[in-house]
Amino acid sequence: MIEFSDIEIFKNNNGMRGMRGMRGIWGMRGMWAACGGKGMRAVCAGKGMRRVFAALALAAMIACCLSAATACDSTPSERRGASQGEQAQAEMAAAGSTALGAEWSTEAGGAAEGKAAGSAAAGSTAAGSAGGAETAGSAEPTEKPVFLLIPKQMSNPYMLKMFEGFASACAENGAIPRYGAVAVNTAEEQIDLIMQAMADGDVSAIAVAANNEDQLEPALKAAMDKGIKIISLDSAVNKNSRMVHIQQASPEIIGRALIQAAAKMADGDAVVGLISTTPYATNQSLWISWMQRELDEYPVKYERFNLLPVVYGDDLPEQSKEAALALLDGHPDLTTIITPSVVGMLAVGQALSERRSSVVFTGLGLPSEIAPFIEDGSCPWMYLWNPIDIGYLAAWTARALHDGEITGVEGDYFTAGRLGQRVVVGSADGGTDILLGDPIKFDRDNIGEWKLVY
Ligand code: RAM
């Protein structure tokens, strides 16, 4: 289990300035701008207050983690929850909990063949952490490699869950975990951290959840040239910018399942709002493209399904809530909201509840946060996988890359701790992936148990 006193928060100390001699700060900025920085700047324009709030949240978080022994001991229930969670997780896996594979369908109206066996739930079995600081079995204590996780945004609860798994795998495989201080969901801050890691010279591997598929490329390529192993997780960087991507679940299954769920929930005329994160997030963009394909491929089935234009909550609580309220105000006939974001889900649940709205919602949420809405029926069901396992798998992948056991090419395989053997497969974008499993469906029948897990 993660001990917050062990977290190393990794901040940018203007490492880019330190890189001047090598590539030059303005050179990197120029490359970033050439890769589409203009678009990102446009998104950031007019968000001054958001930046201030994000900075305050970041400062609070860093303060918490730096005074870990005291401040983080003030959340013992959270930590007890995690251990209770591991136990419940193992029980769920043993009981063969519902994975989505059995339910989603590529056929209009029909359920596909069951694929529940070997699901993410089963893959999530917590077998306990080795917990040792040194690599087991080594006669000579070797220097520990540093593995850095760069989140989309550091206070996002989904990213924190990923880091929890990342740190627990590092405890097992003898690495030092660090968590990147990203205050705003932009590529720019992530680039700064990558440059800082290169300037510091002690980071062996970086796992990044991309805020933009292409903009990180120059920085990540420079890092790979220096021998740093690069993994993307949750939200992919393009194939040139990574050695391998940790894929949570099939993007096709996720996208189709959310449209199918919204159609079933409306059971007739559906007017559906879609609240995404940012327009540049690789994962949400991919899922939305599969949602659109589901609608386009089955026009008859969806002839009474009106998907409204996508709106963005920036993966931030307030903006997501504002987006939900604007949908309610702008569309009195709204029946359903889909949000493929953990942050969006909680915000939508709160907005609907405050308005006492009869609109229902679904998407990708944390069971621990969405349980009350599943229990009261405003979210009839939703999906997710285990974010702790995503981080855990990434840190074991980093170890295998660091040790030279794999290089990230198709056909590579290695043992990822309690998740067992994992194989590197070809990805739709021409790069490679390591797949966690199928998404899990959460409804009234199982939410009581899953809310204790994550
Ligand atoms: C959000 C993040 C993340 C996504 C989850 C479901 O918090 O955007 O990328 O995978 O939700």
* Total tally of structural domains: 2
Low-confidence stretches: 1-6, 15-103, 106-139
Oligomer: single chain
Give the helix tally: 16
Summarize the biggest pleated sheet.
8 strands, mixed
Highest CATH level, the class of the largest domain? Alpha Beta
Helical content band: 40-55%
User: What would you give as the CATH superfamily of the largest domain?
Assistant: Response regulator
For the residues shown, what is the average pLDDT?
79
How far apart lie the N and C ends?
13 Å
Shape: elongated
Q: What is the percentage of strand-forming residues?
A: 5-15%
The secondary structure category is alpha/beta
β-strand number: 17
Radius of gyration: 21 Å
Widest sheet, order of strands: 1-3-2-4-5-6-16-15
Q: Which molecules are bound in this entry? A: alpha-L-rhamnopyranose
Task: Assign the CATH architecture of the largest domain.
Answer: 3-Layer(aba) Sandwich
CATH topology of the largest domain: Rossmann fold
Summarize the structure.
This protein has 454 residues and is an alpha/beta fold. The protein contains 16 helices and 17 strands.
Characterization of the model:
The chain folds into two domains: 8-68 and 124-248 and 388-437, Response regulator (Rossmann fold); 251-384, Response regulator (Rossmann fold, 3-Layer(aba) Sandwich), CATH 3.40.50. Helix content is 44%, strand content 15%. The protein has 16 helices and 17 strands. It has an eight-stranded mixed β-sheet with strand order 1-3-2-4-5-6-16-15, with helices on both faces. Strands 7, 8, 9, 10 and 11 form a five-stranded parallel β-sheet that branches. The longest helix has 20 residues, at 25-44. The protein is elongated. The two termini are 13 Å apart. The relative contact order is 0.14. The model is unreliable at 1-6, 15-103 and 106-139 (pLDDT under 50). Residues 152, 156, 158, 209, 234-235, 277, 283, 315, 341-343, 364 line the site of alpha-L-rhamnopyranose (RAM).
